[in-house]
Structure formats: structure tokens, C-alpha cells
Amino acid sequence: MAAQSRKLKLVDLALDGVSFESQLRQIMLANNTDDGDKMWVADGSELREETDPDYALELTFLADWRADGISQWLWDNDGRTVPWSAALHPDITAEHVVFGGNVYVKAPSVGGEIRTTEQTEVTLQVQGKPDQTRPGA
Q1: Which of 7, 51, 85, 129 would bridge 36 by S-S if both were Cys, CB 3.0 to 4.6 A apart?
Q2: What mean pLDDT is predicted for residues 43-64?
Q3: Cα–Cα dist 34/50, whole Å
Q4: Which band of pLDDT confidence, cut at 50, 70 and 90, is reported for residue 70?
Q5: For the chain, how many helices (H) and strands (E)?
Q6: Which pLDDT score, from 0 to 100, does residue 77 have?
Q7: CB distance 15 to 103 below 8 Å
């Protein structure tokens, strides 16, 4: 297969049905699942202990403390479990992929360096392994 390279330019992000991509600066769906302990059995083969999926949605936004802004929304929904979806490359049919599921909302840290653009960074814990769909397939 030929090499493929693409810059991440468009992402459609929704938390509990509310779109926040206009403030989004960075998104990472991190797979933090442990590999499980390696075990050897008497016939010389190895196996790995089963582990539970552990994913997190790592997000950086331009801070927005208006009533309907992302920073305020995260603060107001702290502790709730809500549905989420992130569509990457929605403008490229062959590469359009959507991830989603449920996340545990966590209020963001507040503030930052003086005289710099305020950003909201938050890591939301995903319940189980996220779903993946390809709308263009």
C-alpha cells in the first residue's frame, strides 16, 4: 500500500449533543489499556492476562466562559456521564471516521499564564472501548 499523510484540519466534536469544534485546538483519543501480565504455561507457550479497556479523550479548547461556552459547559456538567462523538476528516469521504461512546465529564482546571491566550485542557475518561464507524464506507 502507498504511503498516506494527512493533516488533521476538520473535526466535528459533540458532547451530549452539543457541538464544540469551533473552540477545539487539540483532540486525542488515548488508548491507556494495560497489556496485561505475561504468563508462561507448562507447554512453553505464553499468554497475556485479560485487561479492561481504558481510553481517555484528551481535549484542549480555547477557553470560553460565556454561558454556552465549553469551559462553562464542562464546569456545569462536572461528574455527569454523557454521550460523545468525534468525526475526523468529515470532508474526505474515504477517510471520514467517527469515534464515540460515553465519557465521564470533569470540570477543567482554570486560569493559565498571564497575557497569553487562555485555554481549557481536560481529560475525559471514556467508558469501555469507543465505537468506530465509517459513514462513507
Answers
A1: 51
A2: 91
A3: 9
A4: very high
A5: 1, 10
A6: 98
A7: yes
Q: Is the dihedral of CA 68, 74, 80, 82 positive or negative?
A: positive
* Average pLDDT, integer, range 66-81: 97
Instruction: Specify the pLDDT at position 33.
Output: 92
| Residue 69: per-residue pLDDT | 95
Claim: this prediction has a pTM higher than 0.85: yes
Q: Is 85 exposed, middle or buried (0-12, 13-18, 19+ CB in 10 A)?
A: middle
Query: Is residue 55 within 8 Å of residue 130, measured between CB atoms?
Result: yes
Residue 41 sits at φ, ψ, to 5 deg, of -115, 165
Rounded Cα–Cα distance for residues 93 and 35 (Å) = 33
